[in-house]
Amino acid sequence: MYKRLQDYITSLQQYNGKLHSELSTVETELKRVEKEKATVVENLAMLKGQLTLSMVSLLLWSVNCLISNSSSHG
């Protein structure tokens, strides 16, 4: 009986060690993914700013074209 209990405890300890190892791997991967997510969010914010500037530039160009066309026709 004592030997079976010792074997069971050893088996649980091995399983616990395996779980700790897997947890460590998952934590490492999670940190990597969180860094990648932060980079993506930063890039999206930068692109949004660039897109806004591009839209403003296009709008100003359109307005200038309209002004040029109306002054040359009028």
User: What fraction, in percent, of the residue positions are helical?
Assistant: over 70%
Taking the alpha carbons of the first and last residues, their distance comes to 106 Å
N-to-C order of helices and strands: H
Spatial shape: rod-shaped
User: How many strands, what sense, and barrel or not for the largest sheet?
Assistant: none
Structure classification = mainly alpha
How many distinct helices? 1
Extended strand count? 0
Strand content: under 5%
Mean pLDDT: 92
> What is the rounded Rg?
32 Å
Which stretches of 5+ consecutive residues score pLDDT under 50?
A: none
Describe the structure.
With 74 residues, the chain is mostly helical. The protein has one helix and no strands. The chain has one helix spanning 2-73. It is rod-shaped. It starts with a helix and ends with a helix. The model has no long low-confidence stretch (mean pLDDT 92).
